[in-house]
Amino acid sequence: MNDQNTILRVEDLRVRFRTRRGDVRAVDGVNLELNRGEILGLVGESGCGKSVTAQAVMRLIGDGRGEEVSGRVELDGEDLLQKSEKEMTKLRGRRISMIFQDPMTSLNPVYTVGNQIAEVPLLHEKVTRRDAYARAVGMLETVGIPSPKERARRFPHEFSGGMRQRSVIAMSLCCKPEVLIADEPTTALDVTIQAQILDLLQDLRRDFGTAIILITHDLGVVAEVCDRVAIMYAGGIVEQAPAGELFRKPRHPYTQGLLASLPKIGDRGILKAIEGRPPDLMNLPEGCRFAPRCPHAFGKCSEYPPLERVAEEHDAACWLEKKHE
Ligand SMILES: Nc1ncnc2c1ncn2[C@@H]1O[C@H](COP(=O)(O)OP(=O)(O)OP(=O)(O)O)[C@@H](O)[C@H]1O
Ligand SMILES: [Mg+2]
To answer: What CATH class does 3-95+177-323 carry?
Structure first.
Protein backbone atom coordinates (compact mmCIF):
# COMPACT_ATOMS: atom_id res chain seq x y z
CA MET A 1 0.00 0.00 0.00
CA ASN A 2 1.77 3.18 -1.04
CA ASP A 3 1.32 6.55 0.60
CA GLN A 4 -0.17 8.32 -2.40
CA ASN A 5 -3.00 5.86 -2.34
CA THR A 6 -3.85 6.62 1.29
CA ILE A 7 -6.31 9.45 1.91
CA LEU A 8 -6.83 8.98 5.67
CA ARG A 9 -4.30 7.54 8.10
CA VAL A 10 -5.08 7.07 11.78
CA GLU A 11 -2.06 6.40 13.97
CA ASP A 12 -2.21 5.24 17.56
CA LEU A 13 -5.46 7.09 18.24
CA ARG A 14 -6.40 7.12 21.91
CA VAL A 15 -9.47 8.59 23.58
CA ARG A 16 -9.96 8.71 27.34
CA PHE A 17 -13.01 9.95 29.16
CA ARG A 18 -12.34 11.06 32.71
CA THR A 19 -15.33 10.10 34.82
CA ARG A 20 -15.98 10.16 38.53
CA ARG A 21 -15.55 6.40 38.67
CA GLY A 22 -12.26 6.47 36.76
CA ASP A 23 -10.79 6.80 33.26
CA VAL A 24 -12.64 5.07 30.41
CA ARG A 25 -10.20 4.04 27.69
CA ALA A 26 -12.83 4.06 24.92
CA VAL A 27 -10.28 4.04 22.08
CA ASP A 28 -6.83 2.74 22.86
CA GLY A 29 -4.35 2.47 20.03
CA VAL A 30 -6.36 2.48 16.79
CA ASN A 31 -4.34 2.24 13.58
CA LEU A 32 -6.21 2.53 10.28
CA GLU A 33 -5.55 3.37 6.67
CA LEU A 34 -8.24 4.37 4.20
CA ASN A 35 -7.33 4.28 0.53
CA ARG A 36 -8.72 6.72 -2.01
CA GLY A 37 -12.10 5.65 -3.33
CA GLU A 38 -12.40 2.50 -1.23
CA ILE A 39 -15.07 1.34 1.21
CA LEU A 40 -13.53 0.17 4.48
CA GLY A 41 -15.77 -1.66 6.94
CA LEU A 42 -15.11 -0.97 10.63
CA VAL A 43 -16.61 -3.86 12.56
CA GLY A 44 -16.87 -4.86 16.20
CA GLU A 45 -19.19 -5.59 19.10
CA SER A 46 -21.26 -2.88 20.73
CA GLY A 47 -19.13 -0.62 22.95
CA CYS A 48 -15.77 -1.48 21.34
CA GLY A 49 -15.18 2.17 20.36
CA LYS A 50 -16.30 2.48 16.73
CA SER A 51 -18.37 5.65 17.17
CA VAL A 52 -15.86 7.28 19.49
CA THR A 53 -13.14 6.61 16.86
CA ALA A 54 -15.30 8.27 14.19
CA GLN A 55 -16.09 11.25 16.40
CA ALA A 56 -12.44 11.71 17.32
CA VAL A 57 -11.45 11.63 13.64
CA MET A 58 -14.06 14.33 12.91
CA ARG A 59 -12.83 16.24 16.00
CA LEU A 60 -16.33 16.11 17.46
CA ILE A 61 -14.74 15.03 20.74
CA GLY A 62 -11.43 16.02 22.21
CA ASP A 63 -12.01 19.67 23.02
CA GLY A 64 -14.38 19.11 25.92
CA ARG A 65 -13.56 18.82 29.59
CA GLY A 66 -12.76 15.32 30.70
CA GLU A 67 -11.93 14.18 27.16
CA GLU A 68 -8.38 13.39 26.21
CA VAL A 69 -7.45 12.55 22.62
CA SER A 70 -3.98 11.66 21.35
CA GLY A 71 -2.36 10.19 18.26
CA ARG A 72 -2.44 11.33 14.63
CA VAL A 73 -5.32 11.61 12.15
CA GLU A 74 -3.83 12.51 8.78
CA LEU A 75 -6.14 13.64 6.02
CA ASP A 76 -3.99 13.62 2.90
CA GLY A 77 -0.92 14.18 5.07
CA GLU A 78 -2.31 16.93 7.36
CA ASP A 79 -2.89 16.09 11.03
CA LEU A 80 -6.48 16.98 11.92
CA LEU A 81 -5.75 16.72 15.65
CA GLN A 82 -3.46 19.76 15.32
CA LYS A 83 -6.06 21.95 13.59
CA SER A 84 -7.94 24.79 15.28
CA GLU A 85 -11.71 24.54 15.61
CA LYS A 86 -12.00 27.27 12.95
CA GLU A 87 -9.92 25.23 10.51
CA MET A 88 -12.00 22.13 11.30
CA THR A 89 -15.23 24.02 10.56
CA LYS A 90 -13.85 24.74 7.11
CA LEU A 91 -12.89 21.10 6.59
CA ARG A 92 -16.00 19.34 7.88
CA GLY A 93 -18.52 18.84 5.11
CA ARG A 94 -16.04 19.99 2.47
CA ARG A 95 -13.21 17.44 2.74
CA ILE A 96 -14.49 15.00 5.35
CA SER A 97 -18.12 14.28 6.26
CA MET A 98 -19.97 12.04 8.64
CA ILE A 99 -23.43 10.51 8.65
CA PHE A 100 -24.98 9.20 11.83
CA GLN A 101 -27.15 6.21 12.59
CA ASP A 102 -30.19 8.37 13.26
CA PRO A 103 -30.72 10.85 10.39
CA MET A 104 -32.61 13.22 12.70
CA THR A 105 -29.28 13.92 14.46
CA SER A 106 -28.17 15.76 11.33
CA LEU A 107 -31.46 17.32 10.21
CA ASN A 108 -32.89 20.45 11.75
CA PRO A 109 -36.68 20.11 12.06
CA VAL A 110 -37.37 23.82 11.54
CA TYR A 111 -35.78 24.23 8.09
CA THR A 112 -36.86 22.72 4.77
CA VAL A 113 -34.64 19.91 3.50
CA GLY A 114 -33.65 21.95 0.43
CA ASN A 115 -32.53 24.92 2.51
CA GLN A 116 -30.52 22.72 4.87
CA ILE A 117 -28.61 21.02 2.09
CA ALA A 118 -28.01 24.39 0.40
CA GLU A 119 -26.29 25.63 3.58
CA VAL A 120 -23.35 23.27 2.94
CA PRO A 121 -22.13 24.81 -0.35
CA LEU A 122 -23.04 28.28 1.00
CA LEU A 123 -20.70 27.70 3.93
CA HIS A 124 -17.81 26.30 1.90
CA GLU A 125 -17.94 27.78 -1.58
CA LYS A 126 -18.45 31.16 -3.22
CA VAL A 127 -21.93 30.47 -4.57
CA THR A 128 -25.17 32.44 -4.66
CA ARG A 129 -28.11 31.21 -2.59
CA ARG A 130 -29.97 30.41 -5.79
CA ASP A 131 -27.10 28.26 -7.13
CA ALA A 132 -26.67 26.54 -3.77
CA TYR A 133 -30.36 25.70 -3.70
CA ALA A 134 -30.23 24.34 -7.24
CA ARG A 135 -27.28 22.17 -6.15
CA ALA A 136 -29.34 20.89 -3.23
CA VAL A 137 -32.20 19.89 -5.53
CA GLY A 138 -29.70 18.20 -7.88
CA MET A 139 -28.22 16.24 -4.95
CA LEU A 140 -31.68 15.10 -3.83
CA GLU A 141 -32.17 13.76 -7.33
CA THR A 142 -28.75 12.06 -7.27
CA VAL A 143 -29.61 10.21 -4.06
CA GLY A 144 -32.85 8.98 -5.58
CA ILE A 145 -35.53 11.21 -4.06
CA PRO A 146 -38.54 11.36 -6.39
CA SER A 147 -39.83 14.83 -7.44
CA PRO A 148 -36.78 16.47 -5.84
CA LYS A 149 -37.88 20.03 -6.61
CA GLU A 150 -41.13 19.61 -4.76
CA ARG A 151 -39.52 17.54 -1.97
CA ALA A 152 -36.84 20.17 -1.34
CA ARG A 153 -39.57 22.50 -0.04
CA ARG A 154 -40.64 19.99 2.61
CA PHE A 155 -39.57 19.59 6.23
CA PRO A 156 -37.72 16.54 7.61
CA HIS A 157 -40.79 15.23 9.48
CA GLU A 158 -42.62 14.95 6.15
CA PHE A 159 -40.01 12.43 4.95
CA SER A 160 -39.89 8.67 5.60
CA GLY A 161 -36.88 7.26 7.49
CA GLY A 162 -35.24 6.08 4.28
CA MET A 163 -35.77 9.44 2.57
CA ARG A 164 -34.33 11.26 5.57
CA GLN A 165 -31.22 9.12 5.42
CA ARG A 166 -30.97 9.82 1.67
CA SER A 167 -31.26 13.55 2.43
CA VAL A 168 -28.48 13.32 5.00
CA ILE A 169 -26.31 11.52 2.46
CA ALA A 170 -27.12 14.30 -0.06
CA MET A 171 -26.07 16.88 2.53
CA SER A 172 -22.85 15.09 3.44
CA LEU A 173 -21.79 14.65 -0.19
CA CYS A 174 -22.91 18.03 -1.55
CA CYS A 175 -19.35 19.38 -1.61
CA LYS A 176 -17.85 16.08 -2.81
CA PRO A 177 -15.65 15.34 0.25
CA GLU A 178 -12.69 12.99 -0.12
CA VAL A 179 -13.76 11.00 2.93
CA LEU A 180 -17.16 10.00 4.29
CA ILE A 181 -17.60 8.26 7.63
CA ALA A 182 -20.94 6.48 7.80
CA ASP A 183 -21.72 5.34 11.35
CA GLU A 184 -24.28 2.52 11.13
CA PRO A 185 -26.17 4.45 8.43
CA THR A 186 -28.77 1.73 7.88
CA THR A 187 -29.37 0.26 11.33
CA ALA A 188 -32.51 2.33 11.95
CA LEU A 189 -34.02 1.35 8.57
CA ASP A 190 -35.95 -1.72 7.46
CA VAL A 191 -34.16 -4.37 5.43
CA THR A 192 -35.30 -3.35 1.92
CA ILE A 193 -34.43 0.30 2.53
CA GLN A 194 -31.10 -0.80 4.06
CA ALA A 195 -30.16 -2.54 0.82
CA GLN A 196 -31.12 0.53 -1.22
CA ILE A 197 -29.01 2.85 0.94
CA LEU A 198 -26.01 0.49 0.68
CA ASP A 199 -26.41 0.43 -3.12
CA LEU A 200 -26.57 4.20 -3.09
CA LEU A 201 -23.32 4.48 -1.10
CA GLN A 202 -21.60 2.20 -3.59
CA ASP A 203 -22.89 4.25 -6.55
CA LEU A 204 -21.74 7.51 -4.95
CA ARG A 205 -18.33 6.07 -4.23
CA ARG A 206 -18.06 5.16 -7.90
CA ASP A 207 -19.38 8.49 -9.24
CA PHE A 208 -17.70 10.87 -6.77
CA GLY A 209 -14.62 8.81 -5.86
CA THR A 210 -15.38 9.35 -2.14
CA ALA A 211 -13.55 6.98 0.20
CA ILE A 212 -15.94 5.62 2.83
CA ILE A 213 -15.51 4.19 6.31
CA LEU A 214 -18.63 2.14 6.91
CA ILE A 215 -19.17 1.40 10.59
CA THR A 216 -21.32 -1.63 11.21
CA HIS A 217 -21.70 -4.66 13.43
CA ASP A 218 -23.18 -6.58 10.49
CA LEU A 219 -20.71 -8.84 8.67
CA GLY A 220 -23.35 -9.48 5.99
CA VAL A 221 -23.23 -5.78 5.10
CA VAL A 222 -19.44 -5.94 5.01
CA ALA A 223 -19.44 -8.93 2.66
CA GLU A 224 -21.78 -7.09 0.33
CA VAL A 225 -20.18 -3.66 0.02
CA CYS A 226 -16.73 -3.38 1.59
CA ASP A 227 -13.37 -3.63 -0.18
CA ARG A 228 -11.42 -3.97 3.06
CA VAL A 229 -12.34 -4.64 6.66
CA ALA A 230 -10.89 -3.58 10.01
CA ILE A 231 -11.99 -5.59 13.04
CA MET A 232 -12.11 -3.69 16.32
CA TYR A 233 -12.01 -5.16 19.81
CA ALA A 234 -11.96 -3.29 23.14
CA GLY A 235 -10.64 -0.03 21.72
CA GLY A 236 -8.06 -1.41 19.27
CA ILE A 237 -7.86 -2.84 15.75
CA VAL A 238 -7.09 -6.57 15.96
CA GLU A 239 -7.15 -7.46 12.27
CA GLN A 240 -7.45 -5.83 8.86
CA ALA A 241 -7.51 -7.29 5.39
CA PRO A 242 -9.27 -7.17 2.02
CA ALA A 243 -12.84 -8.39 2.60
CA GLY A 244 -12.55 -11.62 0.57
CA GLU A 245 -9.28 -12.59 2.28
CA LEU A 246 -10.70 -11.86 5.73
CA PHE A 247 -13.72 -14.09 5.15
CA ARG A 248 -11.61 -16.89 3.66
CA LYS A 249 -8.67 -16.77 6.05
CA PRO A 250 -9.46 -14.95 9.29
CA ARG A 251 -6.28 -14.94 11.42
CA HIS A 252 -7.36 -13.44 14.73
CA PRO A 253 -9.33 -15.77 17.03
CA TYR A 254 -11.80 -12.92 17.66
CA THR A 255 -12.51 -12.58 13.93
CA GLN A 256 -12.77 -16.36 13.68
CA GLY A 257 -15.30 -16.26 16.51
CA LEU A 258 -17.33 -13.52 14.81
CA LEU A 259 -17.43 -15.49 11.57
CA ALA A 260 -18.33 -18.72 13.33
CA SER A 261 -21.25 -16.97 14.99
CA LEU A 262 -22.75 -16.04 11.61
CA PRO A 263 -25.70 -18.19 10.54
CA LYS A 264 -24.96 -20.02 7.28
CA ILE A 265 -27.44 -21.18 4.67
CA GLY A 266 -28.35 -24.77 5.50
CA ASP A 267 -27.48 -24.38 9.19
CA ARG A 268 -29.98 -25.50 11.75
CA GLY A 269 -29.77 -21.99 13.13
CA ILE A 270 -27.48 -22.75 16.06
CA LEU A 271 -25.30 -19.70 16.64
CA LYS A 272 -21.98 -20.14 18.34
CA ALA A 273 -21.67 -16.96 20.35
CA ILE A 274 -18.19 -16.09 21.60
CA GLU A 275 -18.09 -16.98 25.29
CA GLY A 276 -17.40 -14.36 27.90
CA ARG A 277 -17.58 -10.58 27.69
CA PRO A 278 -15.32 -7.80 26.45
CA PRO A 279 -13.04 -6.32 29.15
CA ASP A 280 -13.96 -3.33 31.30
CA LEU A 281 -12.65 -0.23 29.54
CA MET A 282 -11.80 1.25 32.94
CA ASN A 283 -9.57 -1.69 33.65
CA LEU A 284 -8.05 -3.04 30.43
CA PRO A 285 -5.71 -6.04 30.76
CA GLU A 286 -2.01 -5.34 30.10
CA GLY A 287 -1.64 -8.02 27.47
CA CYS A 288 -3.92 -9.17 24.66
CA ARG A 289 -7.40 -7.87 25.45
CA PHE A 290 -9.06 -10.88 23.88
CA ALA A 291 -6.96 -13.45 25.77
CA PRO A 292 -9.50 -14.00 28.59
CA ARG A 293 -12.03 -15.20 25.97
CA CYS A 294 -9.58 -16.81 23.57
CA PRO A 295 -9.56 -20.61 23.14
CA HIS A 296 -5.90 -20.49 21.98
CA ALA A 297 -4.41 -18.18 24.64
CA PHE A 298 -0.90 -19.12 25.85
CA GLY A 299 1.86 -17.60 27.99
CA LYS A 300 2.95 -14.90 25.53
CA CYS A 301 -0.57 -13.41 25.48
CA SER A 302 0.16 -11.63 28.77
CA GLU A 303 2.09 -9.17 26.55
CA TYR A 304 0.29 -6.71 24.26
CA PRO A 305 0.36 -8.01 20.65
CA PRO A 306 1.09 -5.29 18.04
CA LEU A 307 -0.82 -5.18 14.75
CA GLU A 308 1.61 -6.75 12.27
CA ARG A 309 1.64 -7.90 8.67
CA VAL A 310 0.83 -11.61 8.38
CA ALA A 311 0.19 -11.87 4.63
CA GLU A 312 -0.09 -9.51 1.69
CA GLU A 313 -2.31 -6.57 2.76
CA HIS A 314 -3.32 -8.58 5.82
CA ASP A 315 -2.52 -7.45 9.38
CA ALA A 316 -3.32 -9.15 12.67
CA ALA A 317 -2.54 -8.47 16.33
CA CYS A 318 -2.07 -11.99 17.66
CA TRP A 319 0.90 -13.89 19.14
CA LEU A 320 -0.32 -17.17 17.60
CA GLU A 321 1.04 -15.88 14.28
CA LYS A 322 4.53 -16.03 15.79
CA LYS A 323 4.13 -19.19 17.81
CA HIS A 324 5.41 -21.56 15.14
CA GLU A 325 8.12 -19.34 13.65
N1 LIG B 1 -18.71 10.68 27.00
C2 LIG B 1 -18.39 9.46 27.44
N3 LIG B 1 -18.00 9.26 28.72
C4 LIG B 1 -17.66 8.05 29.19
N5 LIG B 1 -17.66 6.93 28.43
C6 LIG B 1 -18.05 7.06 27.14
C7 LIG B 1 -18.44 8.33 26.57
N8 LIG B 1 -18.76 8.13 25.27
C9 LIG B 1 -18.59 6.80 25.04
N10 LIG B 1 -18.16 6.16 26.15
C11 LIG B 1 -17.84 4.73 26.26
O12 LIG B 1 -16.90 4.41 25.27
C13 LIG B 1 -17.09 3.08 24.80
C14 LIG B 1 -17.12 3.03 23.30
O15 LIG B 1 -18.32 3.62 22.84
P16 LIG B 1 -18.74 3.68 21.31
O17 LIG B 1 -19.98 4.49 21.26
O18 LIG B 1 -17.60 4.13 20.49
O19 LIG B 1 -19.05 2.15 20.98
P20 LIG B 1 -19.50 1.53 19.58
O21 LIG B 1 -18.45 0.56 19.16
O22 LIG B 1 -19.85 2.63 18.63
O23 LIG B 1 -20.79 0.70 20.00
P24 LIG B 1 -22.20 0.50 19.24
O25 LIG B 1 -22.00 -0.62 18.28
O26 LIG B 1 -23.14 0.15 20.35
O27 LIG B 1 -22.56 1.80 18.58
C28 LIG B 1 -18.38 2.59 25.46
O29 LIG B 1 -18.03 1.75 26.53
C30 LIG B 1 -19.03 3.86 25.96
O31 LIG B 1 -19.79 3.59 27.12
MG1 LIG C 1 -21.61 3.27 17.76
So the answer is: alpha beta
